[in-house]
Amino acid sequence: MVICALLIALVGGDAAAGVHRGAGTSHSTGVSPGTGGCPGAGVQAEPPPPAVTRFLATYVRPDGRVYRPDQGGDTVSEGQAYGLLLAEVAGRDALFGQIWRWTREHLQLGDGLFAFHADAAGHVLSAEPASDADLLIAWALLRYQGPGAGGLHQDGQKVAHAILAHEVTAGPAGVPILTAGPWATVRPATVDPSYWSLPAMTALACLTGDRRWERMANGAVALTAQLTGNGALLPPDWAELTAAGQARPVPAPDGSEPQVQYGLDAQRTVVWFAASCLPRARTLAARWWQLLRWPARAQALALGLDGTILTPTTSVLPLVAAAAAAQAAGAASGRLLSQATALQLRSPRYYGGAWIALGSTLAGSDLLAGC
Question: What is the pTM for the complete model shown?
Fold first, then answer.
């Protein structure tokens, strides 16, 4: 089965009441906002895989903070987004409400976006937003269908509007392109292709009634095809969008990666593209399987874009990404997910826990299908 849309389970529950009701505006272009009939939105009764329950039990504190015990107990906005998505998949409305409250109270900025980094006490260490977290939080809020859904949808509309206002630049032919954050919109604009969650973008087009999200998803696929030679190369962790609208791979802007690579960022690109309802995106994911099907590459922490092994250390996310590519190509993926699960159980880490939860749900159930 080819994977379709990611993370769409909307669940009912018992305790979303009391969650903040924000003020937001739908920027409609003729499509009525709402969850009915939207890809990436729907109620599922199927129980989630055990990895989802393990992530929520291990990495979500009682107050709703998603923490990284292997990184000093800190919190990033990306983790809060993962927590919201997985709480929905698990049917945990009360937990969803707790995670959203903590996120809103500690990380949300005046413009509607979210500070990227906080310490264990909830004090912001970096107020710079990261657009991947902002995108997933907007999606989670807008597809929620439990008690108090109307207010949460308003909150989601506010976040979605803020993303379009502050984190988007114009690509070829004026197509909106999601950059890495507000700081990254100045040309050459900085992009992280793994921030391009295509299922979230296509869902938001329907949930907000704003077709710019659909154009953004198609633009992301076109730029990724350009960056990878239409799938002949792996996607990079980072790229720049030049004034001429051309995308080119670059090392990490903070200097953490001295060379262009397919690493722990780019591996998420494979999962998002394999999970997309857009045929061209799934085709790219299937082509990446030709580079990832060798066992040493499938598990390596970092590769060159041509598949050369740069860092051979085994890690969970590379295996999840390889499994997604395999499934997009119609190949067996179960062994790779089993390897990823075993590795996470032997050496638990926040990031691996999040992505084995997402990957296991995608590959093993209909909870997240929505095309």
Answer: 0.89
